[in-house]
Amino acid sequence: MPPMNPGTKYAPYEPVNLPNRQWPSKVQRTAPIWTSVDLRDGNQALINPMSQQQKLRFFQLLVHVGFKEIEVAFPSSSDTDFGFVRTIIEQKMIPDDVWIQVLTPAREELIRRTFESVKGAKNVIMHMYNATSPLFRNVVFGNSQEQTIDLAVQHTKLVTKLMDEYSKPENGGTNFRYEYSPETYTQTELDFAVRLCEQVRVAYGKASSTNKIIFNLPATVEIGPPNHYADQIEYFCNNITKREEITVSLHPHNDRGCAVAAAEMGLLAGGDRIEGCLLGNGERTGNVDIVTLALNQFCQGIQPGPLDLSDIQSVVDVVSNCNDIPVHPRHPYAGELVFTAFSGSHQDAIKKGFHAQAQRKEKGDHVWSIPYLPIDPADLGATYEAVIRVNSQSGKGGVAYLVAQSLGLDLPRRMQVAFYQVIQEVADRTGREMTTDDITRAFTQTYHVPSLALGKNEGSMVLKSFRITDDAPPGLNGDAAAANGGTETPRYVRFNGVVARNGKPHDIEGRGNGPLSALLDALDAAFGISANVREYSEHVIDRPGVFAPAAPGATKTKAQAAAYVELVDASPKAVAEAQSATTNGGGAVRQEGWWGVGIDVDITASTLKAVLSAACNLESKTAVEIATKAVEQK
Ligand SMILES: CC(=O)SCCNC(=O)CCNC(=O)[C@H](O)C(C)(C)COP(=O)(O)OP(=O)(O)OC[C@H]1O[C@@H](n2cnc3c(N)ncnc32)[C@H](O)[C@@H]1OP(=O)(O)O
Ligand SMILES: CC(C)C(=O)C(=O)O
Ligand SMILES: [Mg+2]
C-alpha cells in the first residue's frame, strides 16, 4: 500500500495577513491575570470528574497558591457542580478578594440555572460561550454568521438582565463581571469574530475601563503553530474598538504540544489574562500549564503576580490526587527528575557552578547562574539532594559533590578520581543507582573515618595517642633557623605514639622532618610498612554535615580539620616493579597511590590519622571490596 498523502486529507492553517506584526520584537515584563480553569475545563476532561470533597481540596489549593480568579464549575451540568458552588458560597470559603467564575452555554434555561448557583456570592465572573467557527456553524448548530451573532447577542442580553436582578441587595448583592468566549476562535474567520464580539459588547452594555468585559479567545483545539495564535491575538487587539474597556483573555489548548509557547507569544501580542490548569490537565492533551508559564516568568526575574509556587510538591500532590493522573517525572519544574543530573559532564559543570556561585555571592552578586539548572530548586521547595544522582553514567564531579554535601569534605582532585573509580566499580557490581547514603557509607568505610552518624570502621591501624617533640641534631631546628633567617631550615621531629594494630596496642617511634614523615618512619620500623607521601592537603570543615558537630572529645567551639594523604608503596619490591614497568613500557609508569582521610579538631592529629588511613589501604588493597560491602550491608 502506498504511504498515505496527508496533503489530500488535512488542510493547513490559514496564515493571518498581518504585515506589520509587532509581537515578535516585544518582551514580556509583567505577569498576566491568572485564571484557573482546573475545576471546570480540567474537571470535564477527567475519566471520573472530581467529587465534592476533591473539588473542595483543589479549590483550597488554588486559593492557597494565590489565584484571584477561579472558574469553579459548569453549574448547569450536574448536581455535583451546582452543589459545589452552593457549598463554597454558603460555607463562606471564598476569600473576599477572589472572583469565582462559572461557565454556561448560550442557552436560556442553563443560564438561569447558572445564576441560581451563584446567588449570594460576593464576586462572580459570568462566563458564556458559543462556538463560532464555520465547522460548528454548519455541522453543530446549522447557523449562519448572522444567526450565530444573534444567539450570542440575545443570550448576552439575558445575562445582563439577570446580573441586574442578582446584584440587588435583596437577591444577594453580587458584583458581576462578564466573560464571553467565541469558542473555536482560532478556527473562526477573524473579521467575523471581531464583529461578533463588538456586538456582544454593545449588547452587554456595562463595559467600562473599571468594569472591563473579558473576551476570552480560545484555541479550543490547537490547530496551528504558536506564532499563528499570536497573530490572531494581535489582529483582535488591533481591530476591536474600545480596547480600554476590554480584557483580552487567552485560553490555549495543547493539541500540538505548544500551548505554553502559544500563551507566551499571545501575551506579547496583547493578551492580558491567561486561563489554564495547574500542570496542564484539561481536554485531550490539556489546557495550558499555568505552573510552567508562571515559573518561566519567575526565572526571567518576573514575579508571577500573586502566585506562590514555592511548595511545588504540595501542588503536585493535590493535583495528581484530585485528577487521579500522575505527573510525568520530566514535567517542567514539577517532575521528580527535572533537577537531577546523572551524567558525569553535567554533574561536573553543576558542581563547579555551585562553587563559582558561592564565590560570586560573597562579592554581593546574587544572580542565579548555574550550568544546566535554569532555576534554583530551593525556590520550589526542592532540596539539593535531588540535583545530583549517581549511576554508571556519572563522573567524579558528581560523586565529589555528594561527598561535599553530606560530609562537608572537599576532596583533592586526584582523590576525587580515586574514590570515583571505587564508586564506579561498586555501581557496576551492584547494578544500581548509588544514593547519597550509599556514597557516604562507602566513603567513610573505605577511608576508615569513624563517624557518630555512620558507625565505625577504623581500619587495621588506629592512632590511640601521640606526642611530637623536637628532635634536631645540635645546631639545627631553632638554632639553625635563627642562624639563616628562619626560612629554609629542615625541622627534625620525633613521633612517639600508641597505634592499635588489629586491636592490639603498639608503642611506636620514628623521626622525620615533620610529623607526617616521622609517623611513616615509625610505621616502617614497627610494622615494615614502607611508604612515601605523594600528595597532602587539608582544610577546615566549615559546612554543616556529618562532621560539622564536634567529634567526641572535641571542644564545641573548635571546628574539625580534614586531612588527605596519598601514599605510594616504597617497599623494595614495589619500587623494583615500578622501575621494570617503566623500562619495559618505554615511558614513566605512575605507581598506584593509596588515599587516606583523617578528621580531628587538632590539625596534626588529623594528618596522622590520614596517614594511617592511607597505610591501611596500601597494606590491604581492598578499597572496592570494603565499599561494596558498605553499600550492600545497609
Ligand atoms: C470547549 C468547551 O470546553 S465548552 C464546555 C463543554 N463542557 C461541557 O459540555 C460539560 C458540561 N456539559 C453538560 O453537562 C451538558 O452538555 C449540558 C448539561 C450543558 C447540556 O446537555 P444536553 O442538553 O443533553 O445537550 P448536549 O450536551 O447534547 O448539547 C448539545 C446541544 O446543545 C447545543 N449547544 C452546544 N453548545 C452550545 C452553546 N454554547 N450554546 C447554545 N447551545 C449549545 C447544541 O447545538 C445541541 O443542541 P440540539 O440538542 O438542539 O442539537
Ligand atoms: C469554554 C471555552 C472557553 C473552552 O473551554 C474552550 O474553547 O476551550
Ligand atoms: Mg477549553
UniProtKB/TrEMBL annotation:
SMART domains: LeuA_dimer (SM00917). Signal peptide: none annotated. Residues 32-313 form the Pyruvate carboxyltransferase domain. GO terms for cellular component: mitochondrion. Pfam families: HMGL-like, IPMS_D2, LeuA_dimer. Its EC number is 2.3.3.13. It catalyses: 3-methyl-2-oxobutanoate + acetyl-CoA + H2O = (2S)-2-isopropylmalate + CoA + H(+). It is an enzyme of class 2 (transferase). Keywords: Amino-acid biosynthesis, Branched-chain amino acid biosynthesis, Leucine biosynthesis, Metal-binding, Transferase. GO terms for molecular function: 2-isopropylmalate synthase activity; metal ion binding. Its cofactor is a divalent metal cation. GO terms for biological process: L-leucine biosynthetic process. The keyword Metal-binding applies. SUPFAM superfamilies: 2-isopropylmalate synthase LeuA, allosteric (dimerisation) domain, Aldolase, post-HMGL domain-like. Pathway: Amino-acid biosynthesis; L-leucine biosynthesis; L-leucine from 3-methyl-2-oxobutanoate: step 1/4. PANTHER family: 2-ISOPROPYLMALATE SYNTHASE (PTHR46911:SF1), PTHR46911. Belongs to the alpha-IPM synthase/homocitrate synthase family. LeuA type 2 subfamily. NCBIfam families: leuA_yeast (TIGR00970), PRK03739.1 (NF002991). HAMAP family: LeuA_type2. This is 2-isopropylmalate synthase. It comes from Acaromyces ingoldii.
